[in-house]
């Protein structure tokens, strides 16, 4: 017994070495395999197996033999599936994923499954055999699944398959194909093996061992398909409506007064002129007016008027008005005193008041309001209820999140927020808030000067850039202005302009330290008020009215994260 096992292992090792050599030969090995495949032509009722790719360690001959034992018929390898004959096609999908398809005798439908093979080569051949048996014996169920019907909806399929499963058909199979007789007896044992599912099969019988994991093909699923979204008509053809009548030109003083008197309003014009108001289904060209240009469905082209352009659907092109522009969505440009888009914008809005949904492009106005912004908001006040991926530039900026908000007051709802306590060489101690987006922040502080003959109340305002070098370490470059005031009169005594570079390190418990060099320039009402540094200052302008001094210094502080 040991010698047989050793011989078997040796033969498998030799076969594996030969297969590796054939694979290494590359293109030279392919004609050899093809000739071998064509050499064994299907005869009688033999089932054809076509191999179009397998993992390198899986032997096609082993797969052929395993499938023959499982289905109870002779299986031959071939280079192509002959028309009208039962055939399996085994195709590699990359890695250890393969697809096995089956077509019965005649011009039957093709059924198949895609599975991942086990790493063990012998188990891989057995798995393919079980899958082949499932496809061959359960063809009606597979077809019903492909057609979206239940197998019981076709009761006629059961009797046609029953003779294939019973031993009584053994004589007919034997008469047509001699090698089929032994596997039929094995097939007869398969139902008996499946019935007592609780009892383990005898170890000495290989056929029941293969029949036991008959449920293996059941978990195999088809490759997942990505659900596709059907584009809306607005996305596919926003300038087309099948139920509207196209006209090249039209002119109206008011709706129903003009060409619309006879044509009605369910029209699409290429050229439209309106005096007080015009109304139609859509525009595919140019519309000019003095009053209202109104389209019920869409506008593709340009609308020009004094009072208002109103489109209840999408606009693809330009709307220009002294007064109001309105659209449900915009791809193009709006220019007016008030520009409103109920949905998304891909383009530019330029007006005193710009309102839109999500914006990909730019809003340029006094007050800009949008959802998410990918681009730029430039105005006195910019509001983005969603994230900003781009730039907000204005006196006041608001965003949910922002990469770059530059202004006097930036409110970033989910941005950075630090509470700082810092001091410097002048004896000034400050407490303040630093907040902003990913790269730009504002600094607001209040404090006092602790040294000197008289106390000074200090206010500070700053703007800075932020670079996050690691999770706990960052560098800020800040420009700050300080104003010093007498108490309690609050009369200003000096103004400081300071540039500093500070490195911040989070040391734990949401607490950190920061420090760095600075350079400060002071403009004071007197020389005494200008002498803030504890060491000599460089004189920039010592005129008696307002001396200007400058000196290098250092900033050290604590920060909450």
Summarize the structure.
The chain is of the alpha/beta class and 561 residues long. The protein has a 17-stranded mixed sheet that branches.
Describe, in plain words, how this protein is organized in 3D.
- This protein is α/β, with parallel strands linked by helices and 561 residues long.
- 21% of the residues lie in helices and 46% in strands.
- The protein contains twelve helices and 31 strands.
- The strands form three sheets. It has a 17-stranded mixed sheet that branches.
- Strand 26 and strand 27 form a beta hairpin.
- Helix 3 (60-71) packs across helix 4 and helix 3 (60-71) packs across helix 8 (181-194).
- The longest helix has 23 residues, at 2-24.
- Keywords: Signal.
- InterPro entries: LA_2272-like.
- Residues 1-36 form the signal peptide.
- Residues 168-197, 209-219 have a biased composition (Low complexity).
- Residues 148-232 are annotated as: Disordered.
Topology:
Layout: H1 2-24, H2 29-39, E1 47-51, H3 60-71, E2 75-77, E3 87-92, E4 97-103, E5 110-116, H4 121-137, H5 139-146, H6 157-165, H7 170-176, H8 181-194, H9 206-211, H10 233-236, E6 245-254, E7 257-258, H11 260-263, E8 267-274, E9 277-289, E10 292-305, E11 308-311, E12 314-321, E13 324-327, E14 329-335, E15 338-341, E16 345-355, E17 359-370, E18 373-378, E19 381-393, E20 396-402, E21 405-406, E22 409-412, E23 416-424, E24 428-436, E25 440-449, E26 456-468, E27 473-485, E28 492-508, E29 511-524, H12 527-530, E30 538-541, E31 548-560
Parallel strand pairs: 1-2, 1-3, 6-8, 8-9, 9-10, 10-11, 10-12, 11-13, 12-14, 13-15, 14-16, 15-16, 16-17, 17-18, 17-19, 18-19, 19-20, 19-21, 20-22
Antiparallel strand pairs: 3-4, 4-5, 6-7, 23-24, 23-31, 24-25, 25-26, 26-27, 27-28, 28-29, 29-31, 30-31
Helix pairs in contact: 3-4, 3-8
